[in-house]
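ok trying this again, last paste got cut off
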Amino acid sequence: MFTGIVQAVGTLRRREPRGGDIRLEIATGELDLTRAAIGDSIAVNGVCLTAVSLESQAFAADVSGETLARTSLGNLSVGDRLNLETALTLSTPLGGHLVSGHVDGLGEIVERSPDARSERFRLRAPDSLARYIAEKGSICIDGVSLTVNRVEGAEFEINIVPHTLAATTIGEFRPGRKVNLEVDLVARYLERLLLGERAAEPAGGGLTREFLEQNGFGARR
C-alpha cells in the first residue's frame, strides 16, 4: 500500500526484454533505500513493483505481461523520469489517500491551461472507470494522489499547485500523454458490496440504474 505522496523522481536506467516481459532498472535519485530489501514493493508511476535487486541509489524490477498491458510502463524509454514511492508503514503520515499500486486503466491528458500559479488539467478516463470518479473525490494519476475538481462524463479536471508540479513528473504532462489511473479503493469495494449476492454471478452483472432502483436506491418517494 502507498499514499500517493511522491517521495522522489527517478529515471529509467535500463530496459531489458526477458521472454515476453521486461526488467526495468531504475535510478532512484533522492529516494531513501537504506531500509529497503529485495522483495519490497516500490511504486513506479503508480504501479506497485517488487524489487529484485538493490543498489544504494537504484533497483531493478520485473514487469509482467499483465502489467505491461494495463499500464504505461511498456512505453517507457531509457532516461524517462518516474514518480517513486516506497510502501507505507504504520507510522507513515497518510498525506494522500490509500493507494494499492494496482492500476485500473490508462487515462489521457486532453487539455492543460494555467490557473493563477497552478496548472489545470483535463483528462479522459476509460468509460469503464467513469462511474468511480467523483467531484472532490480522490484519484491517483501516475502515482500522485490528487483531488478531482470537476467531472463531466468520462472527463475530469484536476488542479496542480506549484509544489506538485516541481516535485513530480506532472509538470511534463502535455495533451495526448497516457497516464496510469487508479480510482479510489472505497468506490470499488462499495460497488461490490452493493451487489450483494449478485456479486457471485458471472461477469457482466454490474450495477445498473434498474438494479439500484429495485433495491431502494434513488427510487422516487
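PB: full thing came through this time. Residues 72 and 180 are 6 Å apart (CA to CA).
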